[in-house]
Amino acid sequence: xxxxxxxxxxxxxxxxxxxxxxxxxxxxxxxxxxxxxxxxxxxxxxxxxxxxxxxxxxxxxxxxxxxxxxxxxxxxxxxxxxxxxxxxxxxxxxxxxxxxxxxxxxxxxxxxxxxxxxxxxxxxxxxxxxxxxxxxxxxxxxxxxxxxxxxxxxxxxxxxxxxxxxxxxxxxxxxxxxxxxxxxxxxxxxxxxxxxxxxxxxxxxxxxxxxxxxxxxxxxxxxxxxxxxxxxxxxxxxxxxxxxxxxxxxxxxxxxxxxxxxxxxxxxxxxxxxxxxxxxxxxxxxxxxxxxxxxxxxxxxxxxxxxxxxxxxxxxxxxxxxxxxxxxxxxxxxxxxxxxxxxxxxxxxxxxxxxxxxxxxxxxxxxxxxxxxxxxxxxxxxxxxxxxxxxxxxxxxxxxxxxxxxxxxxxxxxxxxxxxxxxxxxxxxxx
Length: 431
What we know:
It is found in: Cell membrane. The chain is an all-alpha fold. The chain has two domains: 3-157; 179-430, MetI-like (MetI-like fold, Orthogonal Bundle), CATH 1.10.3720.10. Helices cover 73% and strands 1% of the residues. The radius of gyration is 31 Å and the shape is flat.
């Protein structure tokens, strides 16, 4: 509520409130005679300086130097302190700017004749305005320290030389700039491994995901045909692979594809070919097995998704196509497929991005193996499983962080452009 004073205080100067609030949070509010708000800002800034001044000083020194005395300074701890200090400073600067803007804008209102409402009215109005922010504040702080903090740590780690030979506290970690990115595409062992793994990751993502989508669509269209009986039973059977936990299915398949005692070789390949195939020792056959398993694991979700969409397509479309003499292929191409893709395109894109980082099947089936001479990754490692190997087996933490950044950029760029091109995200009136 706005109140106009009978005596407009033309002498009230917004610039004075601005300067005072810059000097110390709350002084501008006190100048505006907003005593409760001013005291609150004073207490917040004083408490922040008392509680965090030393920590921020240590954090900023630590993130700049990463320590100076080997055996005493722990570079990784200092990096963590530095990130936390930067986050605290960001929050403090935001509140400080809000304090300055509040003091200046309120001083302008007072100069123009505005008079502050009573205390209870002010509290009620402030509560109504800030209620949505109060509800989202816990989630926002959790987002900062659970998502943003680890992300910043991983990004900054990519610009250091943190590895087995530069591991604190015995040794210090140093900032190396873009050296890790340069080594990844110039040093022979890193270059060969990176491009080999990256190529297989792309092939794996495209082939496995496309096959599971194609199989799911084919089965959904087939079961949705009017001539098919016992639809509920068939749908239940086809969705059963989805009901079994993925890691259980992968471990079962790993046993079935075992070169020595697996059922695939013993009961199928040897009777047909006279000898088994090296499913777990030859990268080519291991890749084929992985694609087959992922198709089996992934198609039930796509099948269920497409089944729901197909049932929502009006039969009048197909009746009109029959009148016009449309063939089955034409009805599928011009009616079924556009409707299905329009409704499910975002989820299909997620299928591709998920398989790009599908660590579970790669690791559980054969730990990314078999081993390949001259490479730091196994024959079926994709980028994310290679990051795991570098982190926990080789202690190449900085290089693992470098590859993680590349993975994040690839997935983000792909998802961004695909979502922008997807008709599902356009306004209906602009189609």
